[in-house]
Amino acid sequence: MSKRRVDEDSDIDVSSTDESDVEVGATEEDMEEVINVDFDYFDLNPQVDFHATKTFLRQLFGDDALKFDISGLADLILTENARMINMPVEVVPPMYKMLFEEMERAEDAHEKYEFDYFLVISKIYKLVHANISTDEDEQKSKKKKVSTKDGKEEEFDYFHFEDMVLEKNARYHGQYEYTEKHQETDSRRVFTEYGIDPRLSVLLLTKDGLKKSVPEMEEQFPPF
Fold it and tell me: CA nearest 178: which of 116, 124, 219?
């Protein structure tokens, strides 16, 4: 009797309501949300950026970091620009443009910033087939391939994508293995079929070569 009374008094179509909720939920999931972010750039401050700079240097020199006076290097470069960690590559071209603007102002003020060459120390990583075989091992890789002296090809990729442009315009570029290795490549495996073996990358550019790289970066890595 109570069951019948509920059915008669209710004007809600339960089935249609459930379907409508599902459709609304699916629509909301399909909607893309755009978040606008503004970046403010400031000179490095020795009073607050010392430890962050040391962290950057430890990551740059990897397992060989103990061979360097990291604290001394941090003190030395606190007044200079450095590539920020975990920042999108699209912010790099404006940073290089600002660097040249600062240098031009310094030259106009007859300060000692008339550099002919620029040394960029960065990192790349060698792609190493994992010890655990997968079905994807046979797929062709689109990574950078370098031929060694014995004719074997080694595959590399970049931590910082702007290095692809800098490398193309560099007077000299090379990659070097770290002396100390505390981690197996498989422990750094971020791809399904590859482990990674970090290497130190060194690029020597002339002033003209670095200037040429900036518009090429802007074209290759536009902000939108």
Answer: 124
Between strands 172-177 and 117-129, the pairing is: unpaired
Angle at 61 between CA 57 and CA 65, to 5 degrees: 85
Average pLDDT over residues 194-203: 85
* Residue with the two structure tokens 């893309």: 32
At residue 91, what are phi and psi to the nearest 5 degrees? -85, -10
β-bridge partners, 176: 200
With a threshold of 0.85, does the pTM exceed it?
no
Phi, psi of 123, rounded to the nearest 5 degrees: -135, 145
Q: Please write the tens of the pLDDT for every residue from 54-75.
A: 898 888 888 888 888 998 888 8
- The Cα–Cα gap between 21 and 68 comes to 61
Assess contact for 145 and 155: CB atoms under 8 A.
yes
Give the strand order in the sheet containing 144-147. Answer: 144-147, 153-158, 117-129, 194-206, 172-177
Tell me which residue has tokens 């190493």.
128
- Token digits for 98? 């600002």
What are the beta bridge partners of residue 85? none
> What pairs with residue 158 in β-bridges?
124
